[in-house]
Amino acid sequence: xxxxxxxxxxxxxxxxxxxxxxxxxxxxxxxVSISYTDDLLTPIxxxxxxxxxxxxxxxxxxxxxxxxxxIADAYRQxxxxxxxxxxxxxxxxxxxxxxxxxxxIGEAEEIWPSLIEDVRRNDLKPFYRQEGLIxxxxxxxxxxxxLPQKGYFPLDVVQVSRGCPYRCEFCSVRKFFGDTYRFRxxxxxxxxxxxxxxxLIMFNDxxxxxxxxxxxxxxxxxxxxxxxxxxxxxxxxxxxxxxxxLLSKSGxxxxxxxxxxxxxxxxxxxxxxxxxxxxxREIIDALHxxxxxxxxxxxxxxxEDNPAIFEETVxxxxxxxxxxxxxxxxxxxxxxxxxxxxxxxxxxxQDRWWLLENPNEVAPYFFPKKMNVETLRxxxxxxxxxxxxxxxxxxxxxxxxxxxxxxxxxxxPFQLAQRRFSRKKVIGGKRRYRGRLF
Length: 438
Known about the structure:
By secondary structure, this protein is of the alpha/beta class. The protein is built from 16 helices and 16 strands.
């Protein structure tokens, strides 16, 4: 039996391994042959590039749904059964079933082995749903050897937790992982890290410091290994200077932080109560003093946003010398509280936006409250352009604190690459990937 695992791509994907499929590979019987294609690194030719396999497994995010469906349809036309799973099929299993022979709803660790047996018996069920949530001790070590050896950033990805302790209105994590925040044992995580070949690690958890006691135990144990790492963290855990000091000692080089908005009203409306905008500058300065680089995330389109929000946010990001920023439009992901609220209020003008040929051209998909759609869209574009302008790049370089390894080696090349990306985003146009339309 041969299985092909596929991670579909969209243009804005970063070249970082997705652990979902290597974890499934660990749960697959060893007499099953496995191949893996990351569509970002090796774009699949839907006319003649399909592999001869017995089963295809596709992990699907909402932004990769259209590409995933097209890949699935191409395989099914050739008589190959397709299984889909991930956040998007979990949110919309009936939609995914239109393009798949089977849909895995939720986590798959306890489902996958029985699904494989059903395939062997030619008795594949339409839906497989995990009853209850997975005990983190049952999450196996990913089979990283199935991943491409070239094309990714030179780092190893590790997952230590699932879920998040917070309840942000716009977040899709809860639909997949439930209202829980679960952790692997520190001993298991440390053993996995010891066996990784690269010195740089990316923790792909939604919030690496959401539980203070676990975080302190983990990073105290990580410190002697002298690894370097990056991850995603909430602001709540960064309010304590001792936590920042521990992060630095454990090898933290950079954090992705969801600031989301400078408006406390917007923060409260979105349910992200752990953010306190008046504390942003103090936390940023503390991280910089410890040599920790910050990738910030801001969202435009909240109900209290008006046309002044764009210039105000960009000015803040430049003044605080953020290394990089992602400016996002508020996005109603399916089955989130935000999606249902906007739909109930009659403000959602693009319902299944993820199935549009060029969704970025029509975003934000809803009617904002204090500006029109075009003002929101143009302000978002201008924010990208202004933040990655040459003058902004020069102003944001860290002269005041000891230069970090990131600043010494990659600051200016990274900024120029982001500048090219932002200019492409501002110009817009059809989604292209490696010279061809999806």
